[in-house]
Amino acid sequence: MTQPSLILFDFDDTLCVTERYMSAAFFEVLRDYLKPYQPDLTVQQLVVKNTELYRKHGSSLHGWMHELRKEMDFTLDMFAKFAPVLKGAVMPHTQPNPGLLRRLGELQEMGHELAILTLGHRDYCLPILDKIGITTFIPHEKVFDISVMEGRLKRDADTYHHLLKHHLKGKYRHKYMFEDSMANLMAAHKAGFGTFLIGPKRPPEELDSSIEHQAATINQALDILMNEVLPA
Known about the structure:
Blueprint: E1 6-9, H1 19-34, H2 43-57, H3 60-67, H4 72-90, H5 98-109, E2 113-118, H6 122-131, E3 143-145, H7 157-166, E4 175-179, H8 182-190, E5 194-198, E6 213-215, H9 218-229
Parallel strand pairs: 1-2, 1-4, 2-3, 4-5, 5-6
Helix pairs in contact: 1-4, 2-3, 3-4, 4-6, 5-9, 7-8
GO molecular function, one term: phosphoglycolate phosphatase activity
Family: Belongs to the HAD-like hydrolase superfamily. CbbY/CbbZ/Gph/YieH family.
Keywords: Hydrolase
């Protein structure tokens, strides 16, 4: 191989199934945090509003910052409050994925660069990555948290340009992004990444043209990468 490729992963529900376990804990902490600002908000209203802010901003916590007219320190403090609670909710349910670890090892042996781009939960996901063995192949210094990158969001193409300019500075033959969010992949594609959508298969009419591959699991997606995309 003359030149390595960059293989960038999302964490939640891409490398590891997490969101089904964190939902209840997330809204419990969020309601407590927002009580000084939204004291009469019911849980149902909170869920609806949080979803609305996520769709508008690409991150509900960034959305609350704008909604309450706060600064970035407010959002970073929220992320810090969430980290131990989410870790406690998710950690007991996580186990190593032997197929994933084997594929990561093979990609590493081939000389490719592996990294993770997560939104605001770096301190929460690092202990989980340790537990399930992924940091053997993607060390902590290759886990990038864009919540501290000047308030950037994954659905902005400039975030990926920023990552490549300031953090992942290698000369890459190709760049690939694995994500469970189509909106985030659309931004990554604008920044020159090949795209892999992880999750239940969607019909073609629901897919943006920037989505090049889709697979139900990360293992299946890596099979496509290694057997079909990289050899091409």
